[in-house]
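Course assignment 3, question 2. Fill in each field.
Student: A.L.
Task: Predict the tertiary structure for the chain below.
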Amino acid sequence: MTSITKTQKKGKSLPPKLIIGMGKFVWTTLWQIMMSKLAPRNQSGEYIRPSSEFRNFIKTGEDSPYPPATGRYTLYVGMGCPWAHRTLVVRALKGLETVISISVVSPSAKTGGWVFDTPEENCSTLAELYALAKPGYSGRSTVPVLWDKQTKTIVNNESADIIVMLNSEFNEFALNPTLNLYPEELKQQIDSWNEKIYTYVNNGVYRCGFAQTQEAYNKACDQLFTTLDEIEAALAHSKYLCKDDVTLADVRLFTTLFRFDIVYYGLFKCNCRRIKDYEHLSVYLRNLYQLKGVADTCDLDSIKRDYYGNLFPLNPSGIIPSGPDMSYLN
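Answer field:
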């Protein structure tokens, strides 16, 4: 009895330093394994976003396998996803709500992917839908997905392509056919903004949040806020990125800015400044939010739930914060 008691007492007096060291080692190792699946990295620990694999286009013509039509196509989207949100914004601005249907999928921490609330196309998960479109597919199953209900396949899963198609290829059915978000005379300027915004802002916030070394984070964070400062300076003399006309460049920036104070500022460590702290960026965000139909595409609760509730490596507790107050956009 005496020896057991001594052993028990000895076990209870295990030095806290050893416990902390063991806990840190185990958590760091598991974190690195999970992050390697969630966010591929290079040797410097920088997040590398994989390319989209389905890049077909809807276009008019007898030889086109995917001609524009009403009721033929569905957009699969996640309400928390900024890339999918782009397609919802353009769909609303162009007035395509009755032309292209929407199907919402939700992220599942248990399955590690997007799932349907009720099965569609006899699929319970988005991964199964990808496999239906391309048997044997083993890549990432991401949103948005532009789905052809007639041929039962994925037309495109690259948001940058999809919003260009929504802008130009469905005008005969659109409520706002004269709205051109990608006019020929502004394409060079729009493309220039798009390249910069994608690299340092849209993907930049992920490069901050998914960085796996301090050096990678510092580099991404510096580039992010340098670019936001540059945009702030440009907006001091212009309502939108290309003067007074809203374009696809604004749409692509909007969905990241809307999420910035909500999730990127805290969860992704992009906390040098909030968008609300910028004089011109905050007004710019409010102007875009108040465009007809845009606010209806913004789901604050889903954004917080999807990021804080499902990105386990970044938020192990799963606790969803109550703020921030975004009422100033109204």
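Instructor remarks: The chain is about 45% helix and 10% strand. The two ends are 71 Å apart (CA to CA).
Grade: pending
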